[in-house]
Amino acid sequence: MPESCKLDRKLDALLARRKSHGRLRRLSTTRPESADFSSNGYLSLSTNPVVQKSLLACLAAEVSASEDGNRPCGSRRSILGSGGSRLLDGNSPFAESLELKIAAFHGAETALLFTSAYDANCGLLGCVPQIGDVILYDELIHASVHDGMRMSRATKKIPFAHDSISKTSRRRCTDVGGSRLGRQSEMQGLDDTLRQISESEHVRSGESNVFICVEGLYSMDGDVVSLDEVVRSVDRHLPLGNGHIVVDEAHSVGIFGDDGRGLVSQLGLESKVWARVVGFGKAMGCAGGVVLCSSTTRAYLINYARSLIYTTSMAFTSLASIDVVYSYLMGGGIRPLRRRLESLIRHTHRQLSVLCDQLQVDRRTLHIQEVPSKSPVVPVFTAYPRDLAEHCQRFGFMVRPIVAPTVPAGSERVRICLHSTNTTGEIDGLCRAIGIWIQDRVAVARRRAEDDKVVEARDVFGWDKPRL
Ligand SMILES: Cc1ncc(COP(=O)(O)O)c(C=O)c1O
Fold this sequence. Notes:
The chain has helices spanning 3-20, 49-68, 93-106, 117-127, 143-151, 167-176, 190-197, 201-204, 227-237, 263-266, 295-304, 306-309, 316-330, 335-359, 385-394, 424-461; strands at 35-36, 110-114, 134-138, 156-160, 210-215, 243-248, 275-279, 289-293, 367-368, 377-381, 397-398, 400-402, 413-417. It is an alpha/beta fold. The chain folds into 2 domains: 73-330, 3-Layer(aba) Sandwich (Aspartate Aminotransferase, domain 2); 335-453, Aspartate Aminotransferase, domain 1 (Alpha-Beta Complex). Pyridoxal-5'-phosphate binds at residues 116-118, 121, 142, 144, 215, 219, 248, 250-251, 279, 281, 289.
């Protein structure tokens, strides 16, 4: 038997094991006619006609600039690809001026583009922390931070409880108490972890650096980090300034702050946050990422960040799309979109709580956050996420089940992602579909309970006597 067949057999066995745990991943496409309650494009910018026209105009201008120069084809400006790593032939005046524009918009000293926010996190955390340094990270932090940490030489990497930095999550856990769907983290909170770490000599003396990694908006629960509390804790325990906060703003940019500048900017904490990772693939409607940091950190990343050095840099088409989106933000274009989104968020919470009140559903079947967050991510907790998501999809509403290990076991949910182009009619339709699913489940549970009584009666009396 060829070795490749043996390998396939081994891989098949691993896939079968994953399937038996209900964790098999598959690629799927979304039916174009279904209402989108799943994608991360909260502001619908990728389908915004004004943004699309600006992009086409920018690309046309670039092509004609090449033609006007009457240059031979080989010396034309490259539009499809960048030609190499940023350090070799992949740099351009356009990329550099875009970085200046982005840094100025976010009130940062400098910006450095990466091909994705994943690469930005990997690059940053993979190379900056040195031997002797410590990374403290939210237990629910994104996989890209984990992958960056794996590459890092930091001596300690310590998780802390998410509940300790998120007010919404804290309330949810307390509300649910000991039920199966409740989840109280067993990990130590950030403040206690910082206190413990600061007792070590190298940290106390300021010799070791401590990196504290959080997200602005958590895309699974839709909760927002209590960043001011994080800053206070870091200042209290690391007064020598060796605590460095990293905020992943992949989901919070566009949604928070003036004209979408992000959470750090909304709270005026630019000087307290050492680095921000902004992603363009969510509310910004494009793809790519950027690290906002000091000029020294930027120079260090250019020298050591492997995900920047060893990859082809972004094509002009990507840079242009990011550029037109930033221009749109700067012109105040997203203000009405944000107002609309905020009203849809309120509407969704209202409709869902009416549904739960009317149907008196048990928490295991379905419950929602009692304190709704202001984010466009609305989790609907259920012990049956796949069943609920499939049901909604059959009704033409694209929602996805989120199961362990993406979220901790016991906090499975269906995630509703709202967009400024969703309509209240679509939201009402989705809530009606959820209502039908609840009623079906209740009916099935009732039938099962009655069947159980029949079996019980048969066991006790030896004949069918369903109503005792
Ligand atoms: C919090 C967070 N950070 C980083 C990323 C990576 O973003 P990108 O898709 O740009 O690689 C994601 C995407 O899922 C994310 O949710």
